[in-house]
Amino acid sequence: MPAQFIPEITFPGIQLLPKETTSSIISIKRLDGKVAIVTGGARGIGEATVRLFAIHGAKVIIADVDDALGISLANSLSPHVTYVHCDVTSEEHIQTLINSTLSNYGKLDILFNNAGVLGNQSKHKSILHFDADEFDQVMRVNVRGTALGMKHAARAMIASRTAGCIISTASVAGVMGGLGPHSYTASKHAIVGLTKNAACELGRYGIRVNCISPFGVATRMLVNAWRVDGMGRGGGGR
């Protein structure tokens, strides 16, 4: 059979997904019939996930605050990919996101809690200059947003008796220190702990709760942070 093509995801000088793959790989649609929400899905890791989920047959809801990017991405993919504006720090937004998904598709199989912020605090800024307001904002997006997503996704899955999957983006900075800003590092440690606790509770319902802890991925967020910070000391970082 002839080779088929996967849409290419690009950043300047970077290719995140292979442009070409064999039809035998694509023919195995591992998510056929599944319904998935990806928060922070308009760019970076979220965008790559949306594209891959769609390739594997899932109905995907992109949840983001960047309407232009989110709508553009949804329109570039299959009719089964849609966009919903969602600020993950707002419980009302999360509830609306979950409820609209249930209304349109009747179930929720996968929630990928991917929305997150790095914060403005440089990796090299001392704890002596800790910014409490910035800390609160990072924790609101990264931790509160993740917890709210878990809460309402789990409620939906339990009510429909769906043995679903809740995934969150943590970081290698949530496993060890010295790799990122203090606020970001604290938030990612919190996500790891929250994931473990939720997994213990929700396993009885057949709901799997996991997190991924990637090292540096060249997303726009991280590349911009590198430019601000210097990263090689040229300046003055998902």
From TrEMBL:
PANTHER family: 3-OXOACYL-(ACYL-CARRIER-PROTEIN) REDUCTASE (AFU_ORTHOLOGUE AFUA_6G11210) (PTHR43180), SHORT-CHAIN DEHYDROGENASE REDUCTASE 2A (PTHR43180:SF41). One of its GO terms (molecular function) is oxidoreductase activity, acting on the CH-OH group of donors, NAD or NADP as acceptor. The keyword Oxidoreductase applies. The keyword rRNA-binding does not apply. This is Short-chain dehydrogenase reductase 2a. It comes from Sesamum radiatum (Black benniseed). Keywords: Oxidoreductase. The lineage of its organism: Eukaryota, Viridiplantae, Streptophyta, Embryophyta, Tracheophyta. It holds the Pfam family adh_short. InterPro entries: NAD(P)-bd_dom_sf (IPR036291), SDR_fam (IPR002347). Belongs to the short-chain dehydrogenases/reductases (SDR) family.
